[in-house]
Amino acid sequence: MTESNTIEFKREYVNDLYKEIIAFANTSGGTVYIGIEDDGTVCGVENVNDTQMRCTDNIRPDVMAFVDIKPIVSEGKNVLQITVNKGSMAPYYAQSKGIRPEGVFVRRGTASAPATQTEILNMIKDVSTAYEDARALEQNLTFIEAQRQFDNAGLSFGEMQQRSLGIIGRDGCYTNLAYLLSDQCGYKIKFAVCEGDSKEVFRDRHEFTGSLFRQIDDVMRIIDANNRLSSPKINNVRREDHREYPVEAIREALLNAVIHRDYAMNGDTLVSMFSDRIEFISLGGLVRGVEMADVMMGVSYLRNRKLADIFYRLHLIETYGTGIVKIKKSYGGQSKQPVFECWPNSFKVVLYKTDCDIAESGSDIVKAECVNREETIEKFVAEHGEIIRRDVEKLLNVSSATATRILSKMVEEGKLKRVGDARNVKYVGL
After folding, report:
1. Domain range summary for the chain, segments of one domain joined by +
2. Which residues pair with residue 331 across a beta bridge?
3. How many C-beta neighbours within 10 Å does residue 197 have?
4. Cα–Cα dist 251/73, whole Å
């Protein structure tokens, strides 16, 4: 073993050993070995029990729930092994110094260094009340769009359910989660179609506000109108149509931008279409403790856990942590792969055009495809008397979210009628 960002050697017990434990508890955890030289030579330690008693005396809050101290034998000598897990009540600090840079430590490489004021504030923010749980400043809220989404999913949206979901807080007031789902939500998605491959000239621009549900539907609708179909190909006597951009990738990129953004930051979610790509930019970098490699492997650490849970219950997302995996899969075999970029306060997904020949009159073809889908559903209803969401998924080979969106649109247009409640929702003709 050698010293690293998670391993620290100490020849003997020193009075400021608490710095190493604090640093590991505030960062990503690690292990301190007392009785080993800096070069890895085992020298052993005397009075193991006495040393064990003193290790965490000067640390606040109490860190013992995240620390395991035990003597081990290495090369025939006693060594004290102190395993420190990342704590849940950061910032941990030296009681004699207080919550100041000289009392709060973090791990930097092989050293434990004083934390900056910004790092301390970020730690405090991370363990304080989550944004979605805090009381909303605006209490005069309506939920017309949210009610529609719950109805389409066959779920109740009464006061009891709103309390259970965190829309109504313990004090009986609406939370920020409620604000995000309400018709009054002030956060925006800005959409732009750019001329060429830069933002110098705009061909079309829109701003979407209101419930996040409505914003997602509106953005998906306008992207669909600009996401042209390729020239149809025949494979095994079956017609295959391909979009410029995989619909599944667009959907996942948009949902990730909405669900995972940091709503404690002021600003807009940006969706921009260029001649060769679509960019999705949302505020908020990775959640503290998660790295880009984790995200690319499908690790999910939710910033807005309750918001994600609602989207999951409504079948708008199928499971947690699969968005990027699905995006990458939808680009299998393409010459240009999606790009994922992260900065301290933002996250960007870039989707490139697929390798295909684009048919003329793309927007007309998109409209025709929507009509064909609805005609297929109407034919099924005429033959069977009714249809449910799962029937639409199988019939059109679409996701549950797309099936729900198509059915909702047909209900709004008076082509179908929704009957039943809870999980027994079905759709019949008029």
Report:
1. 7-127, 131-181, 189-352, 364-428
2. none
3. 10
4. 55
Residue 25: both structure tokens together: 């508890």
Tell me how crowded residue 47 is: count the other CB atoms within 10 A of its CB: 12
Burial (CB < 10 A; 0-12, 13-18, 19+), residue 383, is exposed
Helix or strand or coil: residue 203? strand
Q: Which two tokens stand for residue 276?
A: 């060769």
State the amino acid at position 393 in one-letter form.
E
Question: Given this model, what pLDDT does residue 30 score?
Answer: 93
- Of 222, 402, 262, nearest to 343 (Cα)? 262
Q: Which of 42-51, 148-157, 249-258, 371-380 has the lowest mean pLDDT?
A: 42-51
Check whether domain 7-127 has CATH 3.30.950.30, yes or no: yes
pTM of the model: 0.58
Distance CA 232, CA 242 (A): 7
Handedness of CA 226, 184, 182, 261 (dihedral sign): positive
44-48, 201-205, 368-372 — most confident range: 201-205
CA–CA dist 349, 339 (Å, integer) = 6
Q: Which fold has domain 189-352?
A: Heat Shock Protein 90 (3.30.565)
- Report the SS3 class of residue 215: helix
